[in-house]
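REQUEST ID: PR-0412
SUBMITTED BY: lab tech R.K.
PRIORITY: routine
TASK: structure prediction, single protein chain
INPUT:
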Amino acid sequence: MAELENLNLKAEELQVINADQAWHYRIIPKELGNGKLTFFIDKNNNDFTIGEELEILFGKTITLHEEATESIQKALAKFYRRENAGNQKKDLNYKGGAEDFLPNLISEAKALKSSDIHIEIYEERCRVRIRIDGLLVERYQMQKSEYPTLINQIKIQANLDITEKRLPQDGRISFERKGSKFDIRVSVLPTLHGEKVVLRLLSNDATNIDIHNLGFADFDLENYLEGIKKPHGILLISGPTGSGKTTTLYATLKLLNNEKRNILTIEDPIEYTLEGVNQVQLKEAIGLTFGSALRTFLRQDPDVIMVGEIRDPDTASMAIRAAQTGHLVLSTIHTNSAWGTISRLIDIGVPAYLIANTLNTSVAQRLLRKLCPHCKQEKEFSNSLYPKQFKPYREIKLHQVPVGCEECYYTGYRGRKVIYEVVPIDAGMSELIKNGIFEVAREYKERGISTLAEKAFKVFEAGETSIEEIYPLLFT
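STATUS: complete
OUTPUT:
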């Protein structure tokens, strides 16, 4: 049993059988040899005919090692992940030129709520990884000889140049299958051994996005809504890639969207489509940048402008100009905290007095993986698990730790929870910005504002996540 529990299969070993075969015969690969295959098998499913069937199926000598039903069940859920027990996946092992591999791969990734698919080539092998709950998981491997066929298939669907292998390319695929319809952003990058492709799965459906259901605490939501009620100024959302900033922006646009407002957006990529909002796709190759689009937007009589990201002085200065001339500007920026947004804007050349006069609200957000409610376990807590120099807000005697079960595919986590730090920029905060004061702990306390670290600590304290998940935030 211990051998099966500690088993760590490589992608080429997993691909010996597909999910249908694994669950039907209740087997897990153990060893691959010359003309021989060894499997673990559920002892309650083992009879003399199974081995014979498998030898006919694979054309090799089969050896079976019996294991307890519970152990096999755990291994099946871990290595042959399915959307649910009653909906088995198709065989997605790559075969050169297989027309259905790509659509099956995309459908599988979407069903598992993956955000990205990575298709990569190295000196000796090629692999496919998918990102689930923020982490990459290796799913498939293929021969190097088969790799160009798959890359060309992707390029053709994304309207890219299949003869160009030296320069990066970006494209888009409109994917539709069995009633499911969404767009995919394609990024092709030349690497040492060939082209790496990343597929970002986008959602066209914005109907279910509601600002009230995103996870804002009542006090934070009140401050946030006050910020977007103002007719002009800038509202900035900060956070790393994949922290949910775009979803928050679209929920905001959906709230502001009505026939009385002219709303314009410049995005890269357009992740959702909203009826009534004029959305523009960034195209830097032909000069359509965030900055150039903003210049044109100001001649389009806008009420609300959404800029995908402020990442250079030109975009920042145009956003400030738009806010000064009576427009509400929404955008994102990469910083570690809501107050850190101010120093970031100063670093890229925006004068402090302009920030103080135009910034309405600064928001920081993160996504925390939630512990699986079916298997998390309570243990005694030691302060040595905190980062050095961190002073806990309250004493913790017991905490929940990830374990892993069939429900969470033995990751220990299931789903994610968003946390927000919302800072309304009032007259007092504006003065701090003008005077270059970046220590605001007292001002936060006076206004009842909680930092991301405090929010994360509350989630941990409530037993919803682990100390490992909030550890990075305790430094902010």
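NOTES: The CA atoms of residues 118 and 198 lie 5 Å apart.
REVIEWED BY: pending
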